[in-house]
């Protein structure tokens, strides 16, 4: 009778689930509402499915997601602040594109090169210069020229027009990451980027509908071309820096960027900005703008590499698209801009795009912080703040990487 009952129960089991030999087996659960026997494998599969659904939505409430999102918006506010200070300097009769950022590179060099020498020793720092100096020189060149042409663009165009063109850096980053770093984008990341760009399109359209003046600068075409060139250099700089910080401690990369940037920018300022410096208006207001600009930029350069580790250069650049919205909020108070009803719509679109970009991570298909050029287990990468390698070690219970360099 027991065997017959077991055989009958077996017929009710779904295909692929084996029946047990005894209904008294504690591993088998009998449903109280029906005589169907539910196998433990089916229970595990059902539990796994519920966990997967929970983890999908749980990712968007996770600490990692919100830290990444908040850092991105913090950097967008920083870039908006530097753009505002640049515009204020120009309105005060002061414009020296190279010298303006030279102070920032000096600060970066003073802080992070000193820390590098403290950690690695002076001979260790010289070895970095000898072995990898040429790589960091290229990174610094891209970054210096990006800053130079973006600041120069504000001589000829408006803050809003200049910020609208900055999205070109996204295109450059995606293309370079695909071909040089072997990054393969998930469909959700492509859709997220496109949604963010659609939000940018709404910004441009709303300005046109409002009758915004894109031609209030001295020479808008020249200014926009300078901004496109600067955005291109920024794209190269972002991809290069993401590669370096994934393999090297942050203080080494930022210190080298500051050192070589100071050298390149110093020479450039001496050649191109001598007349501008001599003719500039020097007063307390200009000094305040310069201090504010360089302090914000110093913070920006310190935090940006962490976001490169947590996410990617592509996410970094689409996060900066909201700088247009924050720029408008500041412009209302400082420059007398007016808000069109489509601006909040554009902001929401960009934020939705940022969320869509992370569907891949939420669904467990991939991890944006895992860099394909470092190997499957990130064995070629550095274990530091924000890296996937440190998170992997934490998951397997081998410690949290305490004592590892950032």
Automatic annotation (TrEMBL):
A cellular component annotation (GO) from this entry: membrane
Transmembrane segments: 65-90, 96-115, 136-154, 160-180, 187-205, 225-244, 251-271, 286-308, 315-335, 341-360
Pfam family, one: SLC35F
Subcellular location: Membrane
Gene Ontology molecular function, alphabetical: transmembrane transporter activity
SUPFAM superfamilies: Multidrug resistance efflux transporter EmrE
InterPro entries in UniProt: EmrE-like (IPR037185), SLC35_F1/F2/F6 (IPR009262), SLC35F_Transporter (IPR052221)
Top-rank taxon: Eukaryota
Main location: membrane
Keywords attached to this entry: Membrane, Transmembrane, Transmembrane helix, Transport
Membrane topology recorded in Swiss-Prot or TrEMBL: Multi-pass membrane protein
PANTHER family tied to this protein: DUF914-RELATED, SOLUTE CARRIER FAMILY 35 MEMBER F2
Protein family: Belongs to the SLC35F solute transporter family.
Protein's UniProt name: Solute carrier 35 member
Organism: Arthrobotrys oligospora (strain ATCC 24927 / CBS 115.81 / DSM 1491)
């Amino acid at each position: 009778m027991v065997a017959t009952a077991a055989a009958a129960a077996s017929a009710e089991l779904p295909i692929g689930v084996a029946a047990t030999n005894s209904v008294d087996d504690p591993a088998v659960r009998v449903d109280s509402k029906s005589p169907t026997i539910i196998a433990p494998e089916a229970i595990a599969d059902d539990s796994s499915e519920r966990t997967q659904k929970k983890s999908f939505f749980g990712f968007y409430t996770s600490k990692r997601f919100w830290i990444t999102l908040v850092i991105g918006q913090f950097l967008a506010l920083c870039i908006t602040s530097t753009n505002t200070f640049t515009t204020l300097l120009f309105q005060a009769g002061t414009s020296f594109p190279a010298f303006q950022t030279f102070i920032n590179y000096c600060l970066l060099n003073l802080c992070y090169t000193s820390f590098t020498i403290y950690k690695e020793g002076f001979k260790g720092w010289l070895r970095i210069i000898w072995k990898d100096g040429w790589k960091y020189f290229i990174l610094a060149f891209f970054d210096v020229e990006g800053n130079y042409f973006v600041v120069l663009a504000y001589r000829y165009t408006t803050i809003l027009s200049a910020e609208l063109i900055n999205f070109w850096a996204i295109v450059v980053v995606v293309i370079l990451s695909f071909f040089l770093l072997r990054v393969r984008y998930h469909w959700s990341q492509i859709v997220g980027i496109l949604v963010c760009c659609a939000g940018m399109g709404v910004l441009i359209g709303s300005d046109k509908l409002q009758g915004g003046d894109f031609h209030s600068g001295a020479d808008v075409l020249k200014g926009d071309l300078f901004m496109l060139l600067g955005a291109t250099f920024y794209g190269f700089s972002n991809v290069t820096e993401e590669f370096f910080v994934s393999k090297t401690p942050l203080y080494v990369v930022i210190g080298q960027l500051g050192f070589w940037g100071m050298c390149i920018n110093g020479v450039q300022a001496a050649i191109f900005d001598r007349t501008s410096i001599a003719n500039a208006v020097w007063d307390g207001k200009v000094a305040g703008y310069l201090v504010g600009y360089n302090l914000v930029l110093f913070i920006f350069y310190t935090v940006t590499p962490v976001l490169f580790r947590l996410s990617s250069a592509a996410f970094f650049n689409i996060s900066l698209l909201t700088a247009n919205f924050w720029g408008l909020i500041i412009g209302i108070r400082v420059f007398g801009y007016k808000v069109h009803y489509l601006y909040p719509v554009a902001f929401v679109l960009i934020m939705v795009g940022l969320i869509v970009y992370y569907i891949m991570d939420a669904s467990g298909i991939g991890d944006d912080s895992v860099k394909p050029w470092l190997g499957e287990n990130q064995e070629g990468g550095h274990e530091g703040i924000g890296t996937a390698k440190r998170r992997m070690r934490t998951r397997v219970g081998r410690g949290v990487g305490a004592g590892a360099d950032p």
